[in-house]
């Protein structure tokens, strides 16, 4: 009988030599998650919020928090979340548009299971969040179609043509629940892996394309609040799908949000923001109704995190820390990145996307760099469904302190120059 290898691991990143962020011999710039210097703050924050919530429950005396919850998620939590998002986005967010989830990955699964044709199309950008690609492969009747990118954002001319072609060529099963024949999965703000943000004019055009072709656009909006500029972050795509527009089609954009990057991935707390026609379908979902909201207890604790301003204060702190880390990384790249490589400085999020010279294979370079220079990052091909984008690297500021990022980035640039000199004429 086949046996399953189940080694003793305390942590997801412990086993893998590429992803092992705790390995002190090599610095790993791969991981898109907060490190222990940030996570340590969760202890006191969670204690305070939990005490507060449990006291509130005792006062009320009904102990609803330990009962099944309502389908869309705890009312007070959605109310507090709507207020939080409104003040942090600088754009109105309505409680009734929110469905609570166990994070963006879960939100994605809910969308795929609920509103998309079982033999529908999933459009993805040439490079995208690599684990979302694995999630899509679990829906084998759906076809994954890659869309080219230009200047590290989706190429809308190409997208428009591809959508028309795919719609003509297929025969989709749709009904009153599975209302969309196709979904475009994207990360419009502080993209993973490219770090870019879709400009406002492109956002407007993308919404027009979605309406005209009757597709849904799922935006993984997990980095939007990590904005390092002044004022409010870039508007999320959802806000461009305005119900007062004459050609509004009932809502074609979904914002899939999460507390994983702004608090802790382990909380497994997130939300879907969508129009009423989509929210209605979720509210009648048998799976959500049977479970009585997906994370009712955690939503109670999150309500207190929001009511006590703990989340707001922590987000301010995170933004300050991440902004410093990104500045340190980009300053090193500005100084030391070999001339024939390039990058665009992101305005927020976790990631910097390095363009390597054409003949340089990112996977081969990283293998060599990890062994010889003890620094690692993710090669571009890992984000590509089509197995392209070989001459790119993704660096993350999520996990390590700025001092470590500074020295690892400098070493990586030295390694790259050394490698490029061996392979090309570039200086
Ligand atoms: C674009 C994107 N979406 C989703 C996730 C996972 O989010 P969650 O922890 O909320 O499931 C990540 C994590 O790296 C991500 O980068």
UniProtKB/TrEMBL annotation:
It comes from the Eukaryota. Residues 27-406 form the Aminotransferase class I/classII large domain. One of its GO terms (molecular function) is pyridoxal phosphate binding. InterPro entries: Aminotransferase_I/II_large, PyrdxlP-dep_Trfase, PyrdxlP-dep_Trfase_major, PyrdxlP-dep_Trfase_small. SUPFAM superfamilies: PLP-dependent transferases. Pfam families: Aminotran_1_2. This is Aminotransferase class I/classII large domain-containing protein.
